[in-house]
Amino acid sequence: MAAPPVPPAPPDAARQQLREGACQALSARVGALPGKGPVMLGSYEPAPGGEPLPAALRQSAFVYDNALAGIALIACGQPAAARRIADGVVAGVTRDRHYHDGRVRNAYRAGAVPDGPVPLPGWWDEPSKKWFEDRYQVGTATGNVAWAALLLLAVYESTQDRRYLDTAGTLMGWIDKQTFASEPPAAFIGGFFGHEPAPQRQGWKSTEHNVDAYAAFRWLGRYGNDPRWRTGADRARRFVEAMWQPGEGRFVIGTRDDGRTLNGGPSALDASLWPLIAVPELANGWRRALDWTRSRHAVGGGYGFNASPDGVWTEGTGQAALVLRAMGREDEARPLWPLLLAQRAPSGYLYATPERRIRTGLQIGPDSTTDDFYYYHLPHLGATAWAILAAAGWNPFQPGGRQADTANVANKE
User: Fold this and answer.
1) Cβ distance 24 to 344 under 8 Å?
2) Which InterPro entries match (predicted)?
3) Does the reported pTM lie above 0.70?
């Protein structure tokens, strides 16, 4: 006779189990890499019993995922492990095989970072006898640069090692110099796509990227009087404010490729939620974004990437849980903990989605001919890190992971 199914853990217990298990998984991944030097963690793992990872993902350590993982490790109380990832980012800035201007690539080769130029991910194609590298991965997205800076700022807070603060300034100096576009609505553009020496400029402007840039510029401004940081924060914030659509109670995702025309069709969960915790002093005026996400993005007990989603996006469900907690809506976050815990793979990472595949409605790059950006049922570093941040109540956009300012402002009626 089969044993009865194990009932799901109560929400509070699920949140605690989620945090502890995911922290252990991240710590184990860092500890498994030899030495005490810089590392970059692989973003995806093969699903148990599934196919091997696609060649383009097999060695890939995305900077965004690693920045989240490092911040999550600080929230776990493991600053030494976070520091190894931060050292990997510093290596990416200072030891690029071509650039010497302060940027990072979107991804690096997973593993312990060797001496010399930091290796990029790629794969050998036996039929053609050629080495290939993904054009997105070798490029530089503005938001990823800002997230790398947010990691370094968080590690600087925990270590007081000036290298991290200085390198965060180098990264944000690159954003300030290379990506600001003054044509209205003025903002920081998407970045650069493709291989050196002449990657393609991406002129669209992203709400999400400018949220990231605002948070990093503002944080840097706490440590000095460099006018670039105040100016950069003001520019990014004005753009984010302009993307708010009061008639609908939501943020648009940004502009189209021309950098001028608003892209009001799609809705992205991260662009809808992140402003509430990155710009907490305006959160009360934007709280209708929570109603928008619930009515447009809710699916399967969690949240999907885009409006009318085709499945749960684990990473975004963690984001929603964090923002709901920050906005004083803990009761709405509570049902999400058992759902997130149920996404845990045997390795300890969380699956990117419980579905075989979910769509985002977005394209990976300018050479895409279809909306080819998907998430798959694979254990995912980024989803795991966001679950930790949510369970810990740690705001990655604020010094010290602060949530109090957001909740206090949001609760003033």
Assistant:
1) no
2) Terpenoid_cyclase/PrenylTrfase
3) yes
**Owner of token pair 């949140």:** 15
Among the four given CATH numbers 1.50.10.20, 2.60.120.10, 3.90.228.20, 1.10.260.40, the one describing domain 11-410: 1.50.10.20
What tokens were used for 62? 């995305």
User: Cβ contacts of residue 131 below 8 Å, gap of 6+?
Assistant: 122, 123, 124, 125
- Listed in order, strand segments (DSSP E) in 180-255 are 180-181, 187-193, 200-205, 244-245, 250-251
Give the ranges where 225-380 is alpha helix by DSSP (H): 227-243, 269-278, 288-297, 314-326, 330-333, 336-341
pLDDT in tens, the chain (413 residues): 454 554 567 788 999 999 999 999 999 999 999 999 999 999 999 999 989 999 999 999 999 999 999 999 999 999 999 999 999 999 999 999 999 999 999 999 999 999 999 999 999 999 999 999 999 999 999 999 999 999 999 999 999 999 999 999 999 999 999 999 999 999 999 999 999 999 999 999 999 999 999 999 999 999 989 999 999 999 999 999 999 999 999 999 999 999 999 999 899 999 999 999 999 999 999 999 999 999 999 999 999 988 989 899 999 999 999 999 999 999 999 999 999 999 999 999 999 999 987 877 666 678 776 666 778 999 999 999 999 999 999 999 999 998 644 444 444 33
**Location of structure tokens 């809506």:** 329
